[in-house]
Automatic annotation (TrEMBL):
Topological type in the membrane: Multi-pass membrane protein
Name the record gives this protein: Transmembrane protein 50A
Transmembrane stretches, start-end: 24-46, 58-77, 103-123, 135-156
Compartments reported by the entry: Membrane
Statement: the UniProt record of this protein carries the keyword Hydrolase: no
Keywords, in A-Z order: Membrane, Transmembrane, Transmembrane helix
Family: Belongs to the UPF0220 family.
Main location: membrane
GO CC, one annotated term: membrane
InterPro entries tied to this protein: UPF0220 (IPR007919)
């Protein structure tokens, strides 16, 4: 009757769930990031080995590189920077909250631009180079997974231990 009680009375220990998410999500985000780059490298190696297409053009690498930069940009801002806890009588900077929100918006636009670049590469591969369509699909998957990794890492960072759940 434990599950039924949970559905009926909704007694959920949100603090315990949040603590566990903050503990494990940085590792999960790293695994998703690694899977994204693995998917890209696998598509390049597979296309070269099976189809003999050779190395793809350098422009096909840009969505993954830009998505990686967006991951770094997104995680430069903490959630505390988005809320202004300073009062008007302290010497805190009143525009810091706005700058943090603008930086986060810019970072998200860079990330979505990387995903759009992945879509453009997929469309180009489908129309012009059907033998390397795997590379186009991998570019889109890579950008999406890196964006997912960035969102996981940013959303579930802990405030203690340097912000990434590591216990030193």
């Amino acid at each position: 009757m434990g599950c039924i009680d949970w559905f009926i009375f909704a007694e959920v220990d949100y603090d315990r769930i949040t603590t566990r998410l903050r503990q494990y999500c940085p590792g999960i985000a790293g695994a998703v990031f690694g899977a994204a780059w693995w998917c890209w490298i696998d598509a390049i190696i597979y296309s070269a080995a099976v189809h003999g297409t050779g190395y793809p053009p350098l422009i096909y690498h840009l969505p993954g590189i830009v998505a990686t930069l967006a991951l770094i940009f997104i995680n430069l801002i903490s959630r505390d920077d988005l809320t202004n806890y300073t009062d008007y009588y302290s010497s805190g900077d009143e525009g810091s909250e706005t700058r943090a929100r603008c930086w986060l918006f810019f970072s998200y636009m860079v990330a979505f631009g990387a995903v759009a670049g992945g879509v453009a590469i997929l469309v180009t591969c489908v129309q012009q180079h059907p033998d390397i369509i795997r590379i186009g699909a991998a570019s889109l998957i890579q950008s999406g997974l890196i964006l997912s990794s960035a969102l996981l890492l940013w959303a579930f960072r802990s405030e203690d231990s340097g912000g990434y759940g590591a216990a030193f």
